[in-house]
Amino acid sequence: MKKPKRKEIGIVAAVVLVLCLLAGTGIFIRNHQKQEKPEEKKEEVYQSLSKSDRETADLYAQLYETEREEVAKIQTETKDWEQTGRELEQAFFTIPENTKYQMAKEGYSLDDLEQAEKLSLKTGRKAIELARAKGKASENKSWSEVVKDSEILSTEEQLGLTKEQIQQLKDKSLNKEERMEVAVLLLNETYTFEEVLEKLDAGKTVEELKDRNRNKTGTR
């Protein structure tokens, strides 16, 4: 058998190397394409919504600080904007348990993660962002460095009343419990705020406004 010369071996090795590089390039391209597919899929889901639903998705994305494509994904699964809103709200004000577990492994305090969720409700800031702003336990940062007192919302504000509306109700001598009751009536869309003011000016009490709501509910 003829022994191959060194030059021939070099040529064969070079060819093999080129083939390997080409094969590797092909694998890289295929993997890259696979990585791009989820993004393309998400955009397709968003584009599949009607124009009005895309506008709603944009608003929800801005409100809950998430991607519009993620909103679209949830909406296509629920087919119900109210349910979609509840899921987005849950994701905004809480930190998933698996994320908590991972963050705890990275050095975050579980107590801080739970506190971040509580402060999220009180400030309207995203829970996960609050936790990251607080930092790992080793950083020894205090919550007062992350959240200002002025950011803490009152119970009435958490229920949807503005500071101006709260002041108007205070001017009518409503206590905190009564103001909270008014907020609940507004949440249930029993009255508009203007209607509440009209009723109070006419001498109605908050209890009487609540009674009317009960009567309306009972006749449905």
List the helices and strands and how they pair.
Blueprint (H helix, E strand, L loop, with lengths): L5 H42 L3 H13 L4 H11 L2 H13 L3 H9 L4 H14 L3 H8 L20 H4 L4 H9 L4 H12 L5 H9 L4 H13 L2
Helix pairs in contact: 1-3, 2-3, 3-4, 6-7, 10-12
Structural descriptors:
220 residues; mainly alpha; single chain; flat
Structure characterization notes:
By secondary structure, this protein is an all-alpha fold. The protein contains 12 helices and no strands. The longest helix is centred in the first third of the chain and has 42 residues, at 6-47. The radius of gyration is 29 Å and the shape is flat. It starts with 5 loop residues before the first helix and ends with a helix. The model is unreliable at 1-22 (pLDDT under 50).
CA-based shape: flat
- Strand/helix succession: HHHHHHHHHHHH
By DSSP (H or I, 4+ residues per run), the number of helices equals: 12
Share of helical residues:
over 70%
- Strand tally: 0
Report the major sheet.
Answer: none
Mean pLDDT comes to 83
Helix- and strand-based class?
A: mainly alpha
Distance between the termini: 99 Å
Radius of gyration, taken over Cα atoms and rounded to an integer in Å: 29 Å
Strand content: under 5%
- Report low-confidence residues grouped into runs of 5 or more: 1-22
